[in-house]
Write a structure and sequence with these properties.
Layout: H1 14-35, H2 37-75, H3 78-81, E1 83-87, H4 95-101, H5 104-117, E2 131-135, E3 139-140, E4 155-161, E5 168-173, E6 189-195, H6 196-202, E7 209-212, E8 220-230, H7 236-239, E9 248-250, E10 261-268, E11 283-289, H8 301-313, H9 315-323, E12 329-331, H10 334-377, H11 379-387, H12 392-421, H13 428-452, H14 472-495, H15 501-504, H16 506-521, H17 523-532, H18 540-550, H19 556-591, E13 595-598, H20 608-613, E14 620-632, E15 639-644, H21 646-656, H22 663-666, E16 678-679, E17 685-686, H23 700-704, E18 706-711, H24 713-719, E19 724-727, E20 733-741, E21 754-757, E22 770-774, H25 780-786, E23 793-796, H26 797-802, H27 808-852, H28 857-890, H29 897-900, H30 916-944
Parallel strand pairs: 4-10, 6-8, 15-21, 18-20
Antiparallel strand pairs: 1-11, 1-12, 2-4, 2-11, 3-4, 5-8, 6-10, 7-8, 9-10, 13-22, 13-23, 14-15, 14-19, 14-22, 16-17, 18-21, 19-20
Helix pairs in contact: 2-10, 2-12, 2-13, 2-27, 5-9, 8-9, 8-10, 10-13, 10-19, 10-27, 12-13, 14-16, 16-19, 16-28, 17-18, 18-28, 19-27, 19-28, 19-30, 27-30, 28-30
Length: 955
């Protein structure tokens, strides 16, 4: 072929040409990455951190869900969590056939069938799944040497439980066994073992013989051959039937409460089950299926509940009745344990979704901003390529390849970090989250370039919001977003946080609406300030305001990122503040003060209050006499009555906020009149009543004289406010008149109480039984050491608070919200940095031009600071106001009780509370960074000079 210029064209083979083209592409890609090394490293770091956070979230939720489910099953007793299958005494044609059914072989065969009937994800734990033959009716032992605490003989349960040797170690003697002929119903003597607790409680030794009644035969003699120590006493093998491990005091329902007896268990040899047929104990075969706790997974909770139901009353038990015995029955409370845990999870899951939606949307916005900044920095290059004929698809593919070369390895690195830091959780959700982040990072720059360069142009018009009014399309979009946000907020307030995904986005949508409003409204105050400073004699301030009024730095996306980040941080901080406040309130309501020393067996030593006051950290001590057995004469129900010192108790109530009142209303008057002038909540005047007697009670007149009383609303409603007599446990009485009604009081927790001046109580009821302590640093060990010899209990508010964290789901939700607050603040700072980087070249060029016109370095620094200050202040203030408004708008629909409290009844409810730190700290960080970066740029530009910033062709 002859070319146009007359030369000879050399054609390359197809493969060689393709390889050469790929080599050129790779070389161009390497050159491009080296040219933008700083930008590439920053993008890689952003993608790696975001991918790590995105992948870590589902894995952290899985880990907390798994740990919470396992904790719930572990905390429930094994007799509640095992699936107990049993078969009553079989009906056979002969005794020999019945005895054969109770021997080891048939029991082992049935056990294999029962364990196989459990469907995944219910995985049985064979090591802890006990089985054998046991009596269902305790039998009285006729031996008089056994302890009889209530004059009743001890009762014993016999069990031939298999695999005893592998679950216990010998403390004395040997394990029981059978010798000679096989054990039958007529066997007169068998061997047994007991645990060390049973031996110690029932005074059993190796060699002891216990006689139990027989059924139509002589009593059965059980010789104790060994005392064993359980290897895992809290495991299901020993705790599915706790009486085999630990004796307990029991009584028959038809006997008086004081006629109690010991109930214990004897462990027969594994093949001695047939002997139970000769006793009146109604023996049965049993197989206890213990779940393997290590295999429980939170995301399988629904399937696990279905598997338990199938084994308890569904297809599983029907199949077992076919292959084992038609009379087989199964029961368990594991389904109730799972249902309780499901209710806890359903209360926490919406809050986690709120955090995930807020932080995830924020990450998407920041990734989009990063792509926008990269597109703006390369606008001239991309415009030149378009002017030279580059197609939009070709340009997009080129940018996609450049970005993917950085984002894909960074995303893989972030995913790997999440997998290594949080092992033991599902990989698929984490992989999907990391891939989503990587894909967004890859397409952000190409999409932004496609939008910006869809038409070929060499010069861009001004995009100042102050000069270019928003388009109709943008107005329609903003109104649509506003309607959606209002609907989401209304739905959240009405339906709660667990309804739909749109409701979960309500905090984010609040920030979006605020960003759109601020983006539209911010030029007006800046224009007003700019016009107000036009006649000032200085140059810097008018120029800064004029520049700020028409600067494009308040684009919607950066402002949206800032306000969304600040709103997310404020919302997460309010959740944590509400959790802390709810736990503090519950602990305070339970303890009544910062510390409490209380006895229920008498009175405290009279020197104890002074000793406690002298301890370090104790600020004050309020004494009270609390009896829980007071009884109003016109009622039959007992209620607590507290005798207090009005002044000290009023100070304590005011300090704790538990029913504050005026001490004078409760104080017994010295002149023989009862206290003056309190009023009840319904406006009833609590006037004084004349009466005789001396202060301090103890006389007949004191018992008849009405004492001013503080009562709960229920007591005031049931017994009224007029004078009525209250019987005390020691046989004395006191007449009270309700003058104050309060929902809570420090001395008594609950809905029923009376509080009176203890100076008016009879002398025997006036001594302190309770000390209520206040102080910021109470020392628990010192307080317990001081009260060691008083048989009193010491409770601290700080210790009580920790008891409300009952599940890893609660602590995990707190940690995730803490991470959400930190991530929100970090993304807010990052969004601001990206905004500053976007406008940094323009600021550098402006400062260089002004320097050539004679502006000094200090004036340049002040100019850039003042230029950035108005927008930064508006963004920070808007973020604070938006966060505050979001909390108050959404708090009625967000219930954080499940996260805050182990028991929802601990307080009336946990609500969102505004956290000043989460509102102020991110906003101040944004403000300082927005001012600090331009100041640093001005300093650096001043050192570097102006020549580099002014090149040929700059306008």
């Amino acid at each position: 072929m002859t070319p146009r210029d007359g030369g000879t064209k050399t054609s390359l083979p197809g493969n060689a040409g393709t390889k050469a083209a790929h080599a050129r592409v790779r070389a161009g890609l390497r050159i491009r990455l080296r040219a933008f090394a700083g930008t590439s490293v920053a993008l890689a770091l952003l993608v790696a951190v975001t991918a790590a956070l995105a992948a870590a979230y589902p894995r952290a939720v899985d880990r907390y869900a798994d740990a919470g489910l396992r904790r719930a099953v572990e905390q429930a007793l094994p007799d509640q969590t095992t699936v107990q299958t049993r078969v009553p005494l079989p009906w056979m044609d002969s005794v020999a056939e019945t005895e054969a059914a109770l021997r080891v072989g048939p029991l082992d065969k049935a056990r294999a069938e029962i364990l196989a009937a459990a469907e995944a994800p219910l995985v049985p734990d064979p090591a802890q799944s006990s089985y054998g033959v046991r009596t269902t009716v305790p039998m009285e032992a006729s031996d008089p040497w056994l302890p009889q605490p209530g004059g009743r003989p001890a009762q014993l349960v016999l069990a031939a439980q298999q695999e005893l040797a592998s679950h216990a170690r010998l403390s004395a003697g040997r394990l029981p066994r059978t010798t000679g002929a096989p054990v039958t119903a007529a066997t007169a003597r068998v061997e047994a073992a007991v645990t060390v607790e049973t031996a110690r409680t029932l005074d059993i030794r190796v060699g002891s013989v216990i006689h139990l009644p027989g059924s139509a035969r002589a009593p059965l003699a059980v010789r104790i051959t060994g005392i064993v120590v359980p290897r895992v006493p809290e495991g299901a093998y020993w705790s599915a039937l706790p009486v085999l491990r630990t004796p307990a005091l029991s009584r028959r329902p038809d006997l008086p409460p004081n006629e109690v007896h010991w109930l214990g268990g004897l462990l027969l040899a594994p093949d001695a089950g047939p002997v139970l047929l000769g006793t009146p104990g109604r023996p049965e075969r049993y197989w206890n299926v213990a779940p393997d706790i290590d295999t429980l997974r939170g995301h399988d909770l629904d399937r696990l509940a279905s598997a338990v139901a199938a084994l308890e009353s569904g297809p599983g038990v029907q199949r077992l009745r076919t292959v084992v015995d038609a009379g087989l029955e199964a029961e368990t409370n594991l389904d109730e344990v799972l249902a309780d845990h499901a209710r806890l999870r359903s209360g926490i899951a919406p809050l986690l979704l709120l955090a995930a939606v807020g932080t995830g949307s924020l990450a998407v916005i920041v990734l989009a901003m990063a792509g926008g900044v990269a597109a703006d920095r390369r606008r001239a290059e991309l415009a030149l390529l378009r002017a030279r004929g580059a197609s939009l698809p070709g340009l997009a593919v080129r940018l996609l390849a450049e970005t993917a070369a950085v984002a894909v390895p960074a995303g893989a690195l972030g995913l790997t970090a999440a997998l290594l830091v949080l092992p033991g959780a599902r990989t698929a959700p984490a992989l999907a989250a990391a891939l989503t982040v990587t894909l967004l990072a890859c397409v952000a720059l190409p999409l932004r370039a496609l939008v910006a360069h869809r038409t070929v142009r060499m010069h861009d018009g001004r995009e100042d919001l102050a000069d270019t009014p928003p388009s109709r399309r943008r107005t329609v979009v903003e109104l649509t977003v506003l309607v959606i946000a209002v609907g989401a907020v209304a739905a959240l307030r009405r339906q709660g946080s667990g309804s739909t995904a749109l409701v979960a986005a309500a905090p984010l949508l609040t920030g979006v609406v605020a960003a759109l409003l601020l983006a539209r409204l911010h030029p007006w105050p800046l224009r007003a300030l700019s016009r107000a400073t036009t006649r000032m004699r200085g140059l810097v301030l008018p120029l800064a305001l004029a520049q700020a009024a028409r600067a494009p730095g308040f684009a919607v996306l950066p402002l949206l990122a800032l306000l969304s980040a600040l709103t997310t941080a404020a919302f997460g901080g309010s959740v944590l503040a509400g959790v802390t406040a709810a736990r503090d309130a519950a602990a305070l309501a339970h303890v009544g003060a910062d510390g409490r020393i209380e006895t229920t067996t008498g009175e405290l030593p009279r020197t104890l209050p002074d000793r406690v006051r002298r301890l370090p950290g104790v600020r004050d001590v309020a004494e009270a006499n609390v009896t829980h057995d007071a009884k109003p004469r016109q009622g039959s129900q007992l209620l607590p009555l507290a005798g207090v010192d009005p002044d000290a108790y009023a100070d304590l109530s005011r300090r704790t906020g538990l029913g504050p009142f005026d001490a004078a209303s409760l104080r017994q008057a010295d002149d023989g009149t009862t206290g003056g002038g309190g009023t009840t909540d319904d406006g009833t005047k609590g006037g004084g009543t004349k009466g005789g007697g001396t202060k301090g009670g103890g006389t007949k007149g004191a018992a008849d004289r009405p004492l001013p009383a503080l009562a709960s609303p229920r007591v005031a409603e049931e017994y009224g406010t007029g004078p009525y007599s209250v019987l005390l446990p020691d046989g004395t009485s006191v007449t009270v008149r309700v003058v104050l009604v309060r929902d809570r009081t420090p001395a008594v927790s609950g809905d029923d109480f009376l509080v009176v001046d203890r100076a008016g109580l009879p002398r025997g009821a006036a001594w302190a039984t309770t000390l209520l302590l206040t102080g910021d640093a109470l020392n628990g060990p010192e307080l317990r050491s001081t009260a060691r010899d008083t048989s009193a209990t010491v409770r601290l508010r700080t210790e009580e608070r920790t008891r409300h964290v009952d599940s890893p789901l609660q602590s995990g939700a707190e940690r995730l919200y803490g991470v959400a607050v930190a991530a929100g603040a970090g993304y807010a700072v990052l969004a601001l940095v990206l905004t500053v980087l976007r406008t940094a070249p323009a600021r550098g060029a402006l400062l260089a031009r002004l320097r050539t016109m004679g502006m000094t370095r200090s004036q340049g620094r002040r100019l850039l600071i003042l230029t950035a200050l108005p927008q930064a202040f508006l963004a920070a203030a808007g973020g604070v106001l938006t966060g505050w408004a979001a909390i108050h708008l959404l708090s009625p629909g967000v219930d954080i009780t499940a996260v805050a409290l182990a028991s929802p009844s601990a307080v009336e409810g946990a609500v969102l509370r505004t956290d000043p730190l989460s509102l102020a700290v991110p906003a101040l960080a944004v403000l300082l960074l927005a001012v600090g970066v331009p100041a640093g740029q001005a300093w650096w530009t001043g050192r570097r000079g102006s020549v580099r910033e002014l090149r040929l062709g700059d306008s």
